[in-house]
Specification:
Elements: E1 4-13, E2 17-27, E3 32-36, H1 43-51, E4 58-63, E5 66-67, E6 78-81, H2 93-104, H3 108-122, H4 137-149, E7 155-159, H5 167-184, E8 187-192, H6 195-201, E9 204-209, E10 212-217, H7 219-224, H8 229-234, E11 241-249, E12 255-258, E13 264-266, H9 269-272, E14 282-287, E15 292-294, E16 304-316, E17 320-326, E18 332-338, E19 348-354, E20 359-361, E21 369-372
Parallel strand pairs: 3-8, 3-9, 6-7, 7-8
Antiparallel strand pairs: 1-2, 1-4, 4-5, 9-10, 11-12, 11-14, 12-13, 14-20, 15-19, 16-17, 16-19, 17-18, 20-21
Helix pairs in contact: 2-3, 2-4, 3-4
C-alpha cells in the first residue's frame, strides 16, 4: 500500500488542448478515491498519467514517497483494471491471473497458491479452466480484478470497470468491489462518469470538469454542500433545479428571492439577516428534487414556501415518483415525492420548498455557492 500524491499535474495534447490543468490531490494510504465527471473532463487521462501510460506535461506524481514521472509503468508497482477487461483470449482464467507473476519469475508453487487464494476470494474457483469467451461479463470483470489482486500492488487503478455491465450486475459488482477494498485495504483510484457509483464507492470523490478539479470531499459533504453550481448540478439524480432570482427586501427585515414572472420564496431568518444577500443582488437558486413536497399531503412544515406549477410528466419509480412540472415562465422543475400522491398530467399543483435545504450560487455555470446547503 502507498500514498499517491498528484502535485500541480498538467497534460497537454496537440491543438493545443489542456486535458488536465494543475491538478493537486493527495490520496492517503489505503484510501478509496473516485475521480468523477462528464466525458472529456480529464479523469481517464489523469489515471493514465498515474499508471505511466501517458507522460506528464508538468507537475509531479509520487507513489509511496517516490516521484514516478520518469519511471516505466511496469516499475511503478501499480495494477490497472480496464473498461474492456483486456484479458488474453487464448489463455485460461488461471493463466490470465498467473501471467504477471510468471513474468516476475515467482516460483510455481507461489503462483499456484496466490492464484487459487484470489480466485476463492472472488468466487471464481470453478472458472479457472475456462477461457474468456466462455465467461459472462460479470465473470470477466472478476477475472480482470483477480489479475490485478494477485500482483499485491501498492495501488489499484480502475478505469470505468463496470460500464459494460447491465444495471443489476453493476449494483452487485459495486458492492463486491467495496467489500474487497475493505478486506484488502489497498490504495484505490477509481474513474467513472456515473455519479451514483462515485457516491456509493468512494471514501472521497474528486469532481472534475474541463480538466479542472471542482471539489474534493466525502461523498455526502460534496452532495450536501457543493462548492459551485456545476458540482451541484452534476451530483444528484434527477439533477438540482436552478432558478435565476433577485433579492428583494422590505423595511421590516423580511427578504425574498424573486424570479421574474414566477417563483417568489421568503428567506429564512438566518439567511435573510446575512450580509451575503443584499438588496438587488442576483443569484441562482438551487433546490434538489427531494427538497420539494406536495402541499396538502401533510400539515405544512415550518420553513417551507409554496410554488404553484403545472404537472407535465409523471415517472413512477416504485415507492417514489418524479414529477416534471412547468413554472409560469415555461421553465421546468423536477420533484421527487412519495408515490402515494394522486398525480395527473395537466393538473395544477402546489409544491413546498424546504427553505432549510436551498442553495444560493453566484450567476454562471460555475458560480460559487455563497450560502445555504444541508448540514453534514
Amino acid at each position: 500500500m502507498a500514498e499517491v500524491v498528484l502535485s500541480e499535474i498538467c497534460k497537454d495534447f496537440p491543438g493545443p488542448v489542456r486535458a488536465v490543468d494543475r491538478m493537486s490531490v493527495r490520496i492517503a494510504d489505503g484510501e478509496f478515491v473516485v475521480l468523477v465527471g462528464p466525458s472529456g473532463c480529464g479523469k481517464s487521462t489523469t489515471l493514465r498519467m498515474i499508471a505511466g501510460l501517458d507522460d506528464v506535461t508538468a507537475g509531479s506524481i509520487s507513489i509511496g514517497g517516490r516521484v514516478v514521472n520518469n519511471v516505466h509503468p511496469k516499475d511503478r508497482d501499480i495494477a490497472m483494471v480496464f473498461q474492456n477487461y483486456a484479458l488474453y483470449p487464448h489463455m485460461t482464467v488461471y493463466r490470465n491471473m498467473a501471467f504477471a507473476l510468471k513474468l516476475r519469475g515467482a516460483p510455481r508453487a507461489e503462483i499456484d497458491q496466490t492464484v487459487r487464494e484470489t480466485a476463492r476470494l472472488l468466487g471464481i474457483e470453478h472458472l479457472l479452466d475456462r477461457k474468456p469467451r466462455q465467461l459472462s461479463g460479470g465473470q470477466r470483470q472478476r477475472v480482470a480484478v483477480g489479475r490485478a489482486i494477485v500482483r499485491r500492488p501498492k495501488a489499484f487503478l480502475f478505469d470505468e470497470p463496470l460500464s459494460n455491465l447491465d444495471a443489476r450486475l453493476r449494483v452487485e459488482m459495486r458492492a463486491e468491489l467495496k467489500a474487497l477494498h475493505q478486506r484488502l485495504g489497498t490504495t484505490t483510484i477509481y474513474v467513472t462518469h456515473d455519479q451514483e457509483e462515485a457516491m456509493t464507492l468512494g471514501d472521497r470523490v474528486v469532481v472534475m470538469c474541463a480538466g479542472v478539479v471542482q471539489q474534493v470531499g466525502a461523498p455526502l459533504e460534496v452532495y450536501r454542500r457543493p462548492a459551485n453550481r456545476f458540482v451541484a448540478g452534476f451530483l444528484g439524480m434527477p439533477p438540482m433545479n436552478f432558478i435565476d432570482v433577485v433579492v428583494q427586501r422590505d423595511g421590516g427585515g423580511g427578504a425574498w428571492l424573486v424570479e421574474e414572472g414566477g417563483v417568489r420564496l421568503s428567506l429564512p431568518g438566518a439567511l435573510a439577516a446575512s450580509q451575503a444577500v443584499p438588496e438587488g443582488r442576483r443569484f441562482v437558486l438551487g433546490i434538489r428534487p427531494e427538497a420539494l413536497s406536495v402541499a396538502g399531503a401533510t400539515a405544512r412544515p415550518a420553513d417551507t414556501a409554496p410554488i404553484d406549477l403545472e404537472l407535465q410528466v409523471v415517472e413512477p419509480l416504485g415507492d417514489r415518483m418524479d414529477l416534471f412540472l412547468s413554472r409560469p415562465n415555461g421553465r421546468r422543475m423536477v420533484a421527487r415525492v412519495d408515490a402515494s400522491h394522486a398525480a395527473v398530467p395537466g393538473q395544477r399543483m402546489t409544491l413546498l420548498a424546504d427553505l432549510s435545504r436551498i442553495h444560493l450560487f453566484e450567476p454562471g455555470d460555475f458560480g460559487n455557492r455563497v450560502s445555504g446547503g444541508e448540514r453534514i
